[in-house]
Every structure is written in structure tokens, then in C-alpha cells.
Design goal:
With 364 residues, the protein is an alpha+beta fold. The protein is built from ten helices and 15 strands. The strands form five sheets. Strands 5, 8, 9, 12, 13, 14 and 15 form a seven-stranded antiparallel sheet that branches. The longest helix is centred in the middle third of the chain and has 28 residues.
Length: 364
């Protein structure tokens, strides 16, 4: 079989990079064969930029599709005041059992990058809170590079996140020796960040952000205004008529491709996109999806959404299963990879078939 193996360098905010494996597309000798399953009315593919929150983007795609289906809306043109904020969703990636009140959105940590990184956890906590900030209150696209080329975008994005990181670190250094110096620095630098990236946070909120205990909290407070927590700035997500599907309900510790692809086809046939919570994109996948490098350890976990299934066959009658992925690496990645159609088994085997490999939302 002639696969075109994707090995794409993805840069994250820590300036590390990794080659990505598992997204095998088909060469021109293969074509669709037979009936096809594909979810209707998916929202547009978005880019997570260089921020490692694929779990928030994958959860957002599932939630948006549900909102559109429930309210008979066109997801391709869903306005930002009817879309969930991916930045606010990111803080729902946490263990609700540790919270004082899991139904209260204010109980969730105001941080980007929490202990859990499964889109499934975000959706489960959406069922707990039944609300999230609107994308219009904290628009992620405001901070995405508008450069034309991918290389220029990547350079802009790396520069931006480094600017945020350096600003926070420098404030902490200055605050050790001179509180007034640190305050003056935060005031000036905060205004520069607001202007450069069209942030909606006000001057006082930026000063509070610099006082955050962690960089993750600083980033959230700098990007998400405090008024996004108010009722008028939030989307309601009523769950009375909805439930969450999860497979498997326990670790299988053995290959289960046949069961997994059957589950996926079942959901797609009912117009339900399927969340793949964590697949390992390392060259040599392992259960923890961690690789030791000269710079320490590197994680290769990634989350995405499956929206289609079909058979791909060549003229000799050799066929393979293919799935369509709705990936948070942007439309340019989709366009370069046959609109997201990749070999199914290679992708799914990299999930290690652990608890919650697949999840979805269905109406009761």
C-alpha cells in the first residue's frame, strides 16, 4: 500500500517541536469505494495556533455541532455570540471531584493548561455547569497571526507566545526587588500586549493577570476578561435532553480496532461527530505517550474529532478503512491532507484503546 506519511513539525508555546505520526493519507491510486458516512453541518475547522489546547478545540467542535443541531442553525456561519469560547472551555479540563461546587463555573481554575487534557473531561464539565463564555467575549482569532504563509504565521505565533512568557517572567523578577518597578513594568507592558494583540481585557485586569501565581493563570486572565463570567456573556447548554457516550468504559489493554470502528460508524450514521480524546503521535507510541529527549520529556498526545468514514480502494481491489478528521491544525492542514481523510487503523491504534478513547453527545 502506498501511503503518504505525514511528518509535520508542530511548535508549541514551550518552543519545543515534534514530528507527528499517525496521519497516513492515500496516494492517487486509491479512491472512495461504496457508501460513505459523513456528519452534516460541522463548524469550520479552526487552528489552535501554537497553544497546546487541542482538547479545548476538539470539545468545542462537538459542542458547536450539538448547538447547531438542537437549534437548527447553520454551523458554517455560527456567530461568535453563539459559539463557546475555546479559551474558557480549556479551564474545564479538570477533575470536578476536587471542586467545591462542580455546577458553578467560577469554581473551575482560571488557567490555560490544566491537569486533564481530554476533550471528554471538558464536555463532562459542560454537563455539570451547563454554560460557558461566548467566543465573542474572548475571541481566540484576535490573537491568531494574519500572515499569509504558514512559515510567517508560525514565526508570528512563536514571537507572540514568547512575548507573553517573557513579560510574565520579567514581572516576577522585578517584583522580588522593587514592587513599584514591577507595577510600572506591568502597566507599560500590559498596555503593549493589549494593543499588539487586540485584547479585550482592561488595564486593571491586565495588572491582576501579572499578579497570578502561575504563568498558566496569567495567560488565562490576560486573554479572558472578567466580565465573560456574567450571565449575558455566557452560552447556556441545557443537558436535560442530552447524554454523553463514552467508549471503552475501562482500559482494554489490547487492540480493539474492529470494535472501535464499529462504534464510530454507529455514531456517524446517527449524525454524531466522535471525539478521539488522545492519540499518540510519537514515532514509537507507548501507553503514556511520553518520549525522553536531551531536553527532558516530550508528550505526543493529541485530540481531534472524526466526522466521516469510507472505504478507499485501488484498481486491484485492495481496500482500507478511512476516517475524516476535523483537526485543530487549521484549514491549511485539512487542504494539504485530502480534507482530513486518513487511514483509520493507523490512527485508532495510536489511541491505545484506553478508557474514554471515544466520546460523543447524543440526544435522549
Amino acid at each position: 500500500m502506498k501511503f503518504l506519511v505525514l511528518m509535520l513539525a508542530i511548535f508549541v508555546a514551550t518552543e519545543s517541536s515534534a514530528q507527528i505520526y499517525g496521519f497516513n493519507t492515500f496516494d492517487s491510486s486509491y479512491g472512495p469505494n461504496g457508501d460513505e458516512l459523513q456528519v452534516k453541518n460541522m463548524p469550520p475547522v479552526r487552528s489552535q495556533d501554537t497553544l497546546g489546547v487541542c482538547y479545548a478545540f476538539s470539545a468545542s467542535a462537538i459542542i458547536e455541532h450539538t448547538i447547531c443541531k438542537e437549534n437548527k442553525l447553520d454551523c458554517k456561519d455560527l456567530p461568535n455570540d453563539q459559539r463557546p469560547s475555546v479559551l474558557d472551555l480549556a479551564r474545564y479540563a479538570t477533575d470536578p471531584s476536587k471542586l467545591q461546587d462542580k455546577s458553578d463555573p467560577n469554581s473551575y481554575p482560571k488557567e490555560l493548561g490544566n491537569e486533564f487534557t481530554f476533550g471528554m473531561d471538558i464536555i463532562l464539565n459542560m454537563f455539570n455547569t451547563e454554560s460557558v463564555s461566548k467566543e465573542s467575549c474572548a475571541p481566540f482569532d484576535n490573537i491568531v497571526s494574519k500572515a499569509r504563509s504558514v512559515n510567517e504565521q508560525r514565526a508570528d505565533e512563536e514571537k507572540m507566545w514568547l512575548q507573553f512568557r517573557n513579560a510574565y517572567d520579567m514581572y516576577k523578577i522585578k517584583s522580588k526587588d522593587c514592587e513599584q518597578c514591577a507595577l510600572d513594568y506591568a502597566t507599560t507592558t500590559g498596555k503593549d500586549l493589549q494593543k499588539s494583540y487586540n485584547l479585550k481585557t482592561n488595564n486593571l485586569e491586565m495588572l491582576k493577570a501579572f499578579g497570578a501565581a502561575t504563568y498558566q493563570e496569567f495567560l488565562f486572565r490576560a486573554l479572558v476578561p472578567e466580565n465573560c463570567g456574567k450571565a449575558g456573556k455566557r452560552i447556556r447548554f441545557y443537558t436535560t435532553e442530552k447524554k454523553m457516550g463514552i467508549w471503552p468504559l475501562e482500559d482494554t489493554n489490547k487492540p480493539n480496532y474492529d470494535v472501535a470502528i464499529t462504534k464510530i460508524k454507529e455514531q456517524l450514521s446517527n449524525d454524531r461527530p466522535v471525539l478521539v480524546n488522545s492519540l499518540c503521535t510519537l514515532k514509537q507510541p507507548n501507553r503514556e505517550c511520553i518520549k525522553t529527549t536531551s531536553n527532558g520529556t516530550e508528550s505526543g498526545g493529541h485530540g481531534l474529532v472524526i466526522t466521516g468514514f469510507r472505504k478507499m480502494c485501488n484498481k486491484s481491489g485492495k481496500c482500507y478503512d478511512a476516517v475524516k478528521v476535523h483537526n485543530s491544525w487549521g484549514q491549511a492542514w485539512q487542504d494539504a491532507n485530502n480534507d482530513g481523510w486518513v487511514e483509520a487503523k493507523e490512527l485508532l491504534d495510536r489511541t491505545r484503546y484506553q478508557y474514554g478513547t471515544l466520546s460523543w453527545i447524543e440526544f435522549k
